[in-house]
Amino acid sequence: MSEYFQEYFRTGDANVSFYSVTGKTLGINNPYHEVDELPGLLYVCLRIPTGGGKTIVACHSIEVAANELAHKRELEGIDVKWNGRIFFP
Length: 89
What we know:
Blueprint lengths: L1 H10 L2 H13 L27 H16 L9 E2 L5 E2 L2
Antiparallel strand pairs: 1-2
């Protein structure tokens, strides 16, 4: 995830970044699928089975995203709400 964010900040293109990073890490260049209802939203979707540690992965993902995105001027901080939503002011 960290590599994906870094590549996105370098290229400015979610599809190119995702394609590149999945090729390097998985050996398969996967295309990026934008969410139609949320155009322009940079996202990552991980499919983890029941009992696979989704909560732990989600908690660590918040830290990774915050650390990578905090370096951008547009982001001044991160506020994690207990209802599970993350707000980037």
